[in-house]
Design goal:
There is one protein chain. This protein is α/β, with parallel strands linked by helices. 30% of the residues lie in helices and 26% in strands. The protein has 2 domains: 145 residues, Rossmann fold (3-Layer(aba) Sandwich), CATH 3.40.50; 144 residues, LD-carboxypeptidase A C-terminal domain-like (Glucose Oxidase, domain 1), CATH 3.50.30. α8 packs parallel to α9. The longest helix is centred in the first third of the chain and has 13 residues.
């Protein structure tokens, strides 16, 4: 199948670009593949820990939405910054622009808020700097990204650890666990019943991950989902106080405590090899003997 080419907009809606060389590699790699790249001014600026002041980052988002050359907007990196913008974004205009939006990490806040406001489907997947701009990019990540974006339905088989058998279908949603938990109790968290929820995080100790999942549990979110898919949880330092408590122990506690099938092994998060997942799209999940098939559609 031939991969379609895009007018791709690169913008920095949150943190500043740490490694300009990665952006140069991303641009060269995307252009070599036939894409047309438009670089927003925020990609080359810095203000405090952000790429630019809030008003300028807000303007960058709207430039992506309004520029007729941009078909696919890719955030250059995560960090922190979307939370400051959510109450000021014109989600109706963003949805009406009919663009595709791609990223992960802090980008989750925008994805969930956009779906809550307008049912806009966005894509959890690679970032410009870390993924497209890697010295040696992941073929797994790029192949799955362009494979999904090139069609209207995409299926992938993978190994998941959890219940031996499950058949479930629903709205696929989630992303960075810290951002999801942060939006509970706000109008920016969509209310999704019978969905398939996926989460990941970085730099969070297993007890903090467990605590955030308990927050979702106590808020009634987990019990209304058909499945919980755990992606990558990395970048934390074990503590001498753990005394055997680790990520596996956290997962087992969640399986005992939460009324939802819990699976581990989803290739997604702050990791080299990641799927691209349509947040707000449909997911049909079939698990048989540890082998799972995800059929993604509705994007």
């Amino acid at each position: 199948m031939k991969t379609r080419t895009y007018g791709i907009g690169l913008y920095a809606p949150a943190g500043f670009v740490i490694e300009p060389e990665a952006i140069a590699r991303a641009i060269a790699r995307l252009e070599a593949a036939g894409h047309r790249v438009i670089v927003d001014p925020t990609v080359t600026t810095r203000w405090e820990r952000f790429s630019a002041p809030d008003t300028e980052r807000l303007a960058a988002v709207m430039r992506m939405a309004e520029d007729p050359r941009v078909e696919l907007a890719i955030a250059v990196r995560g960090g922190y910054g979307w939370s400051r913008l959510l109450d000021r974004l014109d989600f109706a205009s963003i949805a009406a622009a009919n663009k595709r939006w791609l990223g992960h990490s802090d980008f989750t806040a925008f994805q969930l808020a956009a779906f809550a406001a307008t049912r806009l489907v966005t894509f959890a997947g690679p970032l410009a700097a870390y993924d497209f701009g890697a010295e040696t990019p992941s073929a797994f990540t790029l192949d799955h990204c362009w494979g999904l974006l090139s069609g209207t339905e995409y299926a992938v088989e993978l190994a998941l650890e959890g219940p031996a058998e499950l058949t479930a279908e629903g709205t696929l949603w989630g992303g960075n666990l810290s951002m999801l938990a942060h939006l509970i109790g706000t109008p920016h968290l969509p209310r999704i019943e019978s969905g398939i929820l996926f989460v990941e995080d970085i730099g969070e100790h297993p007890y903090r991950i467990e605590r955030m999942l308990y927050q979702l549990h106590y808020a009634g979110i987990l019990r209304s989902q058909r499945a919980l898919l755990l992606g990558a949880f990395n970048g934390y330092t074990p503590s001498p106080n753990d005394n055997g408590y680790d990520l596996a122990a956290m997962v087992e506690q969640c399986r005992r405590a939460f009324d939802v099938p819990v699976f581990t092994g989803l290739p997604f998060g702050h990791c080299r090899d990641k799927l691209t997942l349509p947040v707000g799209g449909r997911c049909a999940l079939t698990v048989r003997g540890g082998t799972a098939r995800l059929t993604l559609s509705g994007y």
